[in-house]
Amino acid sequence: MKAVELRGISKRFGDVVALDNVDFSVEVGEVHGLLGENGAGKTTLMNILYGLYKPDSGKIFIMGEEVKISSPLDSIRLGIGMIHQISTLVPEFTVIENIVLGDKSLGTFKFDVKLARKKVKELADSIGFELPFDKKVKELPPGVKQKTEIVRALYREAKILILDEPTAYLVGDEFDQLLRAINILKEKGVTIIFITHKIREVFQACDRVTVLKGGKVQGSLDVRKASEDELVSLMFEGQKIEVTDSALPKMILEDVEKTESPILKMVNVSTNVPNLKNLKNVNLEVYGGEILGIAGISGHGQKLLTEVVVNPNLLHSGDILINGKSIKGRSTVDILKSGVFFTPEDRVLEGTLPTASIYKNIFLGHHREGRFLKGKSVVIWKKVRSISRDLIKLFRVKTPNEVIEIRKLSGGNMQKVIFARAFLNPIDLLVTHNPTAGLDMASVKFVFEKLLEMRKSRKAVLYINEDLDELMAVSDRIAVIRNGQIVKVFQRKEFNKREIGKYMAGVVE
Hints:
By secondary structure, this protein is an alpha/beta fold.
């Protein structure tokens, strides 16, 4: 029996056809992959099923019956739960408060706190999740937030679970934990739709797969009978993308002469920020003409390592020099104007203004530059929009124009806008944190190309990523961070995934 059937679903956003007469169905109790590159229409299709968007045309059937879904409340009543790529939890609430939020008996004399807590614990235990029930969500890493959202959906008695790029921010053994939970849910009869752009995840997690490209269905296949080449062909027909055995784009590192002096130098850098893993006497040098990768298990100081370079107020002791000059006492705006650019880990909440237009997001951080101003404060918006249109073409951003809200772009296209902003001015140092999270192979290749362009022009890149395969693909050196300290630096000729992993895990001190 079909748990979900979508017939003839079409959706436009202005001149952009996001979905074109899409037919999609999922059997009860199966894990069905929805595969496609960034911007293929995967999330849009599921947002329609969840009631966040209304289709321009088409019909929706749940358990064989036609239904009208006007809002997420309708979908929840129908037993549909969606775990979004970006957390929808309330940051100031605890884990348990977020899970029971929306329970109709909450706030009445009938609501039994102990009973609800017992039920939540049983649900979490049943799928092998350990949750810090009394911790505020804002203090949690992305993987724990995702677990909380899954348990919340099950608490609401979801029988159909949509997972939108569920592995984008998972690290270490979190993916294995997710796979185990998916198998347990499948045994319980829960139907799962697994949105992804990673072909290897389809083979690890799914029973069947449907491939979308440009808002159209390219085919639906039984995973047991499908091959990687078939799926690559359906996803990227007409595009040339060489991939390595690790399913990453193949990149070639040309020999580049490094600068004599480091562009970035960190000397005994320590921080003292509450609720974060602080840095302890970090010493690092990044030269022009090289990419220094930072490897480490999530939460071991990577966030502060990136942020302290553009915000020296975070320094507790030590010093940071850029092109030989200390940045102590300087403002973030001043540092960014001096040839440094930073792309944060969370592209939505930290890297963009989601409800602002693309051109206003490109303009972020450049608002004090004389070339965009008439006098001292009047912005020449016509010039901003013109330059934005040029950058959209140069960075191959899929959008009908520069005026649409950036939140309507796919993750890959959003990242391209952030990189366009970075390259609006000449820069000497790029600090980038997980820039490829949630991106498909074509978008990963694009990001890698930009990093290698920096390297070729003898600029410096500090590249933080928990994915070792991606780090090893483009880095000249890899420094391992653990408990806020740099414990080992590997030269490219020494790269060995197992050895680097030992230092990350603390097996070797």
